[in-house]
Design a protein that fits this description.
Layout lengths: L5 E6 L14 E2 L2 E2 H11 L5 E5 L3 H7 L6 E4 L7 H12 L6 E5 L7 H14 L2 E5 L2 E8 L1 H6 L10 H5 L7 E3 L14 H6 L12
Parallel strand pairs: 1-4, 1-6, 4-5, 7-9
Antiparallel strand pairs: 2-3, 6-8, 7-8
């Protein structure tokens, strides 16, 4: 079953703790931001936004071949809330359910997105379990995305998702998605499991 929706790839971070652009790490020769944006496109989303900030020109170049819209978050250093507000504002004129993704979860694949879609169809909202809370990737209704306009600083969607209540949100159990890339210490396990290339090579 398919339904009209949009997709947003949050790719504006500066990767300070990692020391290099996590968006440009590669899996099978494909940058993580390209992989994430490609998976978003493959869901047949009506609009496909990629929010850029840190390393903006390099990230834009990495997704240039994909049918996506680029939005620049000039205030990206203030935290993820700015990117969410930017996405919510851009999509406000034609509210639809929205798939929200980040490009620092190298294990992400299409099966996760299909499971989240199914959870959304069942409950009206779906997110990935991170401990006791829900987080990205997430498939959220338009009204929840609109509430992101109130977020500030480094506050993401977890509070808004938690407010839905367990009966109104499907949580996807995918422990591999809790392994994100924040510091150099996160890279060895990701490489061991084939989620990150041993050597980063530019994607064509």
């Amino acid at each position: 079953m398919t339904f009209a929706h949009d997709a947003v790839v949050l790719a504006a971070g500066g990767s300070r703790r990692l020391g290099q652009a996590k968006q440009l790490l590669t899996r099978d020769g494909e940058t993580l931001v390209h992989r994430c944006a490609r998976l978003a496109v493959e869901t047949t989303a009506r609009r496909r936004l990629v929010i850029v900030g840190g390393y903006a020109e390099e990230v834009i170049a990495a997704v240039r071949d994909l049918p996506v819209e680029i939005l620049r978050n000039d205030d990206w250093e203030a935290g993820i809330a700015g990117s969410l507000r930017l996405a919510a504002a851009a999509l406000a004129d034609a509210p639809r359910p929205c798939l929200l993704l980040t490009c620092d979860q190298p294990a992400l694949d299409a099966t996760h997105l299909r499971a989240l879609r199914d959870g959304f169809i069942d409950r009206g909202c779906a997110a990935t379990r991170h401990g006791d809370a829900g987080g990205v990737p997430a498939w959220v209704p338009a009204d929840l995305l609109a509430q992101a306009m109130s977020l500030q600083g480094d506050r993401g969607l977890r509070g808004l998702l938690a407010a839905r209540g367990p009966r109104h949100i499907a949580l996807l159990d995918a422990p591999e998605l809790t392994h994100d890339i924040d510091t150099p210490d996160d890279l060895p396990l990701a490489r061991q499991r084939g989620w990150i290339d041993e050597r980063d090579v530019p994607a064509g």
